[in-house]
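The instructor's notes for this session suggest beginning with a concrete chain rather than abstract definitions. Hand out the sequence below and ask the class to guess, before any prediction is shown, which regions might be ordered.
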Amino acid sequence: MNKSLIAATFVCSVVSLPVNASVPATVQVCVSCHGAQGQGLEGVGPKLAGLSSAYMAAQIKLFQSGSRQNPLMQPMAMMLQGDNIQVAADYFASQPVGDISLLYRGDKVAITDPAEKLAYQGDWSRDLPACFSCHGSSAIGAEQFPRLAGQQASYIKSQLEAWQKGTRKGDADNMMANVAGKLTAAEIDQLAQYLASLK
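After discussion, reveal the predicted structure:
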């Protein structure tokens, strides 16, 4: 079965799911993969709670334009049009997310864990900025820079690989493709596990 047929079958099954009365009608299409409160489902849909409304609205439009490629998400994104994009983004941005202890750059001088070091300090010998430079203290995110703290490790890994392969595009100045392109496979694994552990 090819990916398009799998996606079409999945979309049909999602459309026929029971309605969750606590979720706005516009958002029902997102619930089966991302959960009613945007907590995500491992291996199916990433966490949306904790992401900004502006970021999610932009990502839906990138899926629609093909700048982000995913055989399941692209047809789902097409089901949200006009004002409904903002309704869905606002709904998930308003969902609660757990508090975490903020770790600021400079709090630690000596860092031995290679993933933690990349996240805090980057690697200037390779022109790699620290993850926290854009994604905020403890990677809690800010506006167009998504929250990575507590996100599923498998999702973070898949997105870094997508940036490397060019199946994900659309950020300013191709910034993330440049960053991901300098990471080794081992570093991607380590960063995904480290960022997922920030809770």
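Then share the key points. The two ends are 38 Å apart (CA to CA). The longest helix spans residues 3-15.
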